[in-house]
Design goal:
Elements: E1 69-82, E2 92-106, E3 110-121, E4 138-150, E5 153-160, H1 180-185, E6 196-205, E7 208-215, E8 232-233, E9 238-239, E10 259-268, E11 271-281, E12 287-289, E13 294-296, E14 299-311, E15 314-325, E16 340-352, E17 355-366, H2 369-375, E18 386-398, E19 403-412, E20 417-427, E21 432-443, E22 458-466
Antiparallel strand pairs: 1-2, 1-22, 2-3, 3-4, 4-5, 5-6, 6-7, 7-10, 8-9, 10-11, 11-14, 12-13, 14-15, 15-16, 16-17, 17-18, 18-19, 19-20, 20-21, 21-22
């Protein structure tokens, strides 16, 4: 029983989104602006020079506070359909009408950011608002204030999307929440990153940046809980066929269930380096409580480092992290995961004009593997002591870069399974873009990580108008 959560969100902590693919900090992705360049106005024709106009009271009026308000957003329709039926799950994986409003208001002392989505969802139709899981008719993406009390200090307080690390759709030291449902059903890539309710401080000293993030109450991943997508249920010995929510013991006590993350980063010549610390909990429910029958979020510390820079005509990056199971792992508690090492190495470059490729090798190595095997329930499929994952990305720009074709494949030679993401995005105009794609899971066994999601393979299409 202790391994139920290992099949619900077990290695998803290793998947993630590259910083350069996101905006905001993550910002996952705000805009840069500047005053228009001043130009020399032509002199008036002879005889008109005496017609100088004296400014009136109206023309001298102070600018309105609204002048400091920047508004934007989009309307979007997005639909996804399952490639094969399963149990009592709907064939529709995605059916949304989404309206996002993004606003920024700046003053001399602060910048206020508010981004919210209004959503009509035909898959989960109950309409109950859950801001933590992004469900219901409203999804609050950001509500924050950025303060600059000192030239060397930034403070950002409130709901915000955070990211760091070097991986392309693979995370090691980024322990901020992810939305795995969004990633597996074909929402826009920006929705892989879920928001945090946190305080972020950035200090700039002597070429080094120190970032600290305090989350007063634990923000978990928006993990696969069985309502929208199927997964392998080890207790039943097969694929889940009923759209019922996984029972999970929440960590929702302010002050007690807090998270802290720290990063020191800088640059040596053309290479960017960073060191990381995290204190909190496994982001998906990796543990199990046999008394309550609920899955749990065991305690976790993470220590890591990364390096990124130019190499061989492209960009190389590497990352390492040690996942320290503070509960002791199987040696002291058979219902929590063991500690493990995680490694990532990647390289990307332009292959030919407008065609970019990237490859990554990712490895997980479990500590105290003998203790894990000794406590594994009879008949349960064991994880490998070392799990390997290889990713390949190809991106082709066509038609004056208005058409983008992309393919991203995850393949695990140890699990013999994978996950392929295909997408075509066409920019019709400055305001309109359309997109279609496919998400395909495959594997030799239904109990493997990607193999268990095979019934969730789907195709999707969307239309978006930005303003």
């Amino acid at each position: 029983m202790r391994n139920l959560a290992r099949y619900v969100g077990p290695m998803v902590l290793g998947l993630g989104l590259a910083n350069h693919a996101l905006a905001g900090e993550p910002a996952l992705p705000a805009g840069l602006g500047g005053a228009p360049a001043q130009t020399q106005e032509p002199s008036l024709p002879t005889g008109l020079g005496s017609l100088e106009v004296t400014p009136t009271q109206e023309t001298k009026a102070a600018p309105s506070a609204w002048d400091a308000l920047d508004l934007g957003g989009f309307y979007e329709l997005r639909y996804g359909h399952r490639l094969s039926g399963v149990g009592n799950y709907k064939d529709t994986t995605l059916g949304e009408a989404r309206f996002q409003i993004e606003s920024t208001w700046s003053s001399d002392w602060a910048t206020f950011n508010l981004t919210t989505d209004l959503v009509a969802d035909q898959v989960l139709e109950d309409g109950a608002v859950d801001l933590e899981n992004g469900e219901g008719w409203i999804d609050l993406r950001e509500a924050s204030v950025l303060l600059r009390p000192l030239d060397t200090l930034d403070l950002k307080i409130g709901r915000q999307v955070l990211t760091w690390g070097t991986g392309d759709l693979v995370f090691i030291n980024d322990l901020f929440p992810k939305d795995w449902n969004a990633f597996f059903i074909g929402r826009d890539d920006e929705y892989l990153k879920a928001p945090s309710d946190a305080i972020k401080a950035s200090i700039y000293v002597g070429g080094i940046t120190l970032d600290g993030v305090l989350t007063p109450r634990f923000d978990s991943d928006r993990f696969i809980d069985g309502r929208r997508l199927t997964f392998f249920d080890p207790l039943a010995g097969g694929i889940k066929t009923q759209p019922l929510a996984l029972s999970v013991a929440a960590r929702d006590q302010y002050g007690d269930d807090w998270e802290g993350a720290f990063r020191a980063s800088g640059q040596v010549k053309s290479f960017e380096w960073a060191g990381y610390l995290y204190r909190g909990y496994w982001k998906s429910p990796m543990g199990f409580d046999p008394l309550s029958g609920q899955n749990t979020f065991p305690e976790l510390n993470v220590y890591g480092a990364s390096l990124r820079g130019p190499l061989g005509g492209g960009i190389a990056h590497g990352e390492i992290g040690y996942y320290d199971a503070r509960d002791g792992g199987a040696a002291s508690d058979p219902f929590v995961p063991n500690s493990e090492w995680r490694f990532l190495a990647g390289f990307e470059r332009e292959i030919i004009s407008d065609l970019t490729g990237g490859i990554q090798i990712y490895v997980e190595h479990m500590s105290d593997y003998d203790d894990y095997l000794a406590t594994l329930p009879m008949g349960m499929r064991p994880r490998d002591e070392t799990r390997q994952l290889i990713t390949v990305r190809l991106t082709q720009m066509l038609m004056n870069q208005n058409l983008m074709l992309s393919a991203f494949n995850f393949w695990s030679p140890t699990d013999e399974d994978g996950y392929l993401r295909l997408k075509a995005n066409y920019k019709v105009s400055d305001a309109w873009q359309i997109e279609t794609g496919a998400i395909v899971f495959y594997g030799a066994e239904t109990a493997s990580f990607f193999g268990q999601f095979e019934d969730n393979s789907n195709v999707f299409v969307s239309a978006r108008m930005s303003f």
